[in-house]
Automatic annotation (TrEMBL):
Keyword DNA-binding attached: no
GO function term, MF aspect, one: acyltransferase activity, transferring groups other than amino-acyl groups
Gene3D superfamilies: 3.40.630.30
Domain of life of the native organism: Bacteria
Assigned keywords, A-Z: Acyltransferase, Transferase
Pfam families found in the cross-reference section: Acetyltransf_1
InterPro entries, per database record: Acyl_CoA_acyltransferase (IPR016181), Bact_Acetyltransf (IPR050832), GNAT_dom (IPR000182)
Protein name (database record): N-acetyltransferase GCN5
Residue ranges annotated for the N-acetyltransferase domain, each copy included: 5-175
Length: 175
């Protein structure tokens, strides 16, 4: 039997209240080798500062924050939709920080986050989504299975948390 997982959008007040558990997920992902803009070691203060900025963006209406929780309310994963785009791109949004805690992987959390992401983007009037991920990682297959189209690869685009270069694959999805 599969454990129930709930995915939902959180508002500004709740986003601020989730900073500590979201920091736990981010730190775990970086420690597990995820290239998500942070380097090792990731100090807790830096992780909580990042999530405070996200909560502020949610409060300003610039971001949508989705969280996945288990039946006890523990946050297992998260993803964001960045709504704030230039004037000539009101139909588009960027997807950022798809994170699933290592203890919750391979349980359908990411797929559920992606399905909720599509619904939340549509509700915001977005019809084109864009994201990037490490080339050759598990996330590439995840996005392809969820209907995302590969746009291309940029070698040495970013660094892994340990400082090694990694390529980045860009994807898009029309809703």
């Amino acid at each position: 039997m599969t454990e129930p997982i709930t995915v939902r959008r959180v508002g500004a007040d709740e986003a601020a209240a989730c900073i500590e558990p979201l920091a736990d997920v981010l730190i775990d992902c970086v420690e597990g080798g995820a290239s998500v803009s942070f380097m090792l070691p990731l100090p807790r203060e830096k992780a909580t500062h990042f999530w405070r900025g996200v909560a502020d963006g949610v409060a300003r209406g610039e971001r949508v924050l989705l969280i996945a929780q288990d039946r006890e309310g523990q946050i297992l994963g998260t993803v964001q939709i960045i709504l704030s785009m230039p004037d000539n791109q009101p139909h588009r949004a960027d997807v950022a920080k798809m994170l699933v805690h290592r203890r919750a992987r391979r349980r359908g959390v990411a797929q559920r986050l992606l399905a909720a992401l599509d619904d939340a983007a549509r509700a915001q009037g977005k019809t084109v989504l864009v994201l990037d991920t490490v080339t050759g990682g598990d996330a590439e297959r995840l996005y392809e299975r969820a209907g995302w189209q590969r746009a291309g690869v940029v070698p040495k685009y970013a660094l892994m948390p340990d400082g090694a270069f990694c390529g980045t694959t860009f994807f898009y999805k029309h809703l």
